[in-house]
Specification:
Blueprint: H1 36-41, E1 47-51, H2 56-63, E2 67-72, H3 75-85, H4 94-104, H5 113-120, H6 125-136, H7 139-148, H8 151-157, H9 160-164, H10 170-182, H11 191-198, E3 210-213, H12 216-222, E4 228-232, H13 242-255, E5 256-266, H14 273-281, E6 289-294
Parallel strand pairs: 1-2, 1-4, 2-3, 4-5
Antiparallel strand pairs: 5-6
Helix pairs in contact: 5-11, 7-10, 12-13
């Protein structure tokens, strides 16, 4: 009897974040993840499975000598990373363009370019927290974020699975995550602060990768057992259902060598104190949960 087709339970398959029909789009021209988490957790020189996205984390791992297989279900992302490996310049993805439009409204929020430059140059978290509360966490910012992340507006633009992962009052949650990060990580040595607030590109040196266009679960179900020593899964489960999560984790266990480490991010809230602590340690400031597990 032929096997039944597997359910398509991941909204990432469309290669789009909006409700429109059309071909897959380049969503991310850069990654909003702190690869220092992977670089510290993974043993150097290992065989790494990595969600390709814009390639930044994969490049950082490959540059130190890891054997990286970068997989993405979105062909536009894989084509883009392949172009970066060839030495072509970074491009702007749809998420990057959206953030760029937000930055253009900075003066209306009471944020001058000079103030943001000075803030990103600070090296003392105590000073940063004071600057954030006095100069940047303005009433106008709160109003703007509440409007941008209102449930009514989100439902008009984005598919329901991507909205479901966001915590209630995400505008407030995001402000608190930013404050948590500014109170913890020196801005001057944190390239993610300048990337988020100023649009300044974080350095990433392209390196050779094994690039594959595929669904992560499909790929891992088909590869040889015990192939990988580490898994960088980005936020692949944001927007998926429980069936897909179970299938992915089963595929990871199958493809994991003994002692393999997995890292999974989410915009959702943490389910444990450890996840909350790891998300606070992550310097890109936006994540609610960072899970780390050993197979």
């Amino acid at each position: 009897m032929p096997a039944l087709p597997k359910p398509d339970a991941t909204p990432w398959r469309r290669g789009r974040l909006d409700r429109r029909t059309g071909p897959p789009e380049l969503l991310f021209g850069r990654m909003y993840e702190d690869s220092a988490v992977e670089l510290e957790a993974f043993e150097p020189g290992g065989r790494v499975f990595c969600i390709a996205s814009a390639g930044c984390t994969a490049f950082d791992l490959a540059s130190r000598g890891d054997d990286v297989t970068a997989v993405d279900i979105n062909p536009a992302q894989v084509d883009y990373v392949r172009a970066r490996v060839r030495g072509e310049p970074a491009q702007t993805g749809k998420v990057d363009r959206w953030l760029g439009r937000v930055r253009r409204f900075a003066p209306a929020l009471g944020w001058s370019r000079d103030a943001l430059e000075r803030f990103c140059g600070l090296a003392e978290p105590e000073q940063q927290l004071d600057f954030w509360r006095r100069r940047l966490d303005t009433r106008r910012l709160r109003v703007a974020l509440a409007a941008a992340f209102s449930p009514v507006r989100l439902r008009r633009v984005y598919p329901a699975p991507f909205i479901a992962v966001l915590p209630n009052q995400f505008d407030r949650v995001l402000r608190l995550r930013l404050e948590r990060g500014f109170a913890r990580h020196p801005n001057a040595s944190n390239p993610h602060a300048a990337a988020l607030l100023l649009g300044r590109a974080r350095p990433a040196t392209p390196a050779p990768l094994n690039l594959v266009t595929a669904d992560a679960a499909d790929f891992l179900e088909r590869c040889e057992r015990g192939r990988f020593d580490a898994f960088s899964l980005s936020n692949i489960l944001d927007g998926t259902d429980d069936r897909y999560a179970e299938r992915l984790f089963a595929a990871v266990r199958r493809a994991a060598a003994p002692g393999a480490v997995t890292i999974l991010r989410s915009l959702g809230e943490p389910e444990s104190e450890e996840e909350a602590r790891r998300s606070a340690d992550e310097r890109s400031l936006i994540w609610g949960s960072v899970q780390m597990a050993t197979m």
